[in-house]
Amino acid sequence: MKVDKICIVLILILAFAGMSWGSEVWVVENPEATSYKFSDLSAEILVTIKNNNDHVQYFKISQAYQGSLAEAENNTILWVIDWTSPAAVKMVKSRYPELGGDYGWKIQPGETKSVCFKLSAVGQMGQIPSYIIRADSDDGVYWPLVPEPGLMASWFVPNELEILNPNLDILRWKGNFSFRLTNVDSTRVSGIVRAPIVPVDSKLTHSNPRVTFLDDELAVDTQIASWDVVMEPGASRVFNYVYEWPMGRSSSSATQGRSSSIPTAGAQENTTSVPTRDTGVPYGLFIVGALVAGAGVVYAKFMRH
């Protein structure tokens, strides 16, 4: 095998190793014994799209999100469309007619169009409390202590439409998410709660209550809004968070700061505050791998005969 190819393999190994070394182990959980549950999940999406093709194109709202729901048979969050702006039209085909049919927009060649719409979850994560479970949890038995990482998150690619149709270019994407968190336990509970749905390569620009930290150790280029929450038995609270894509987009609404645990009884509303941090996934190994690969390529091109 050529030296440069060896180095490319090496950098990939180092990159993936850097993501796994030192990461927290999630031990298997019992969904029936989980105290915090999500409900009333909603998403308000604003997107600007350009049609680079020479003919008219269509795009529509997806009403199914593939996650890892606990206590669900198909692990899919289903949505109904609350409203659209501008008004969407019914599409020629519908994948989920039971949810009211598929609606979307047409976009003319060369046109740039901005649309906004709101979705509300039905069933699991909607009227039925549920949460995101980590599918690859470790089922080993350990003693006498194990870590408790809290509730898991799920993530998606906000500009996936570009992959499905390369002629449609996503210029801007913004998602405003909301959910209700309830302590279904009969005792006071404390733990880490992560946003259930998070876009990758996106920046958190608003959160209420204020996030405790941004978890960037679960997925590459993903900042997961996370809260340290203390709740009394039967208590519930609404959480709201906003992401913008791409991550490099600046936003004047983001400020720095950290908060302590979030009380639920008589709690005062927090203003926007998004902490930033320079640590997390050990990218140092990736940099080392890049240097090694670069040296290998130079050797392969100039030092060999």
UniProtKB/TrEMBL annotation:
Transmembrane segments: 280-300
Region called Disordered, residue ranges: 249-275
Alphabetic keyword roster: Membrane, Transmembrane, Transmembrane helix
Compositionally biased tracts (Low complexity): 250-261
Protein name in the entry: Uncharacterized protein
Lineage: Archaea, Methanobacteriati, Methanobacteriota, Methanomada group, Methanobacteria
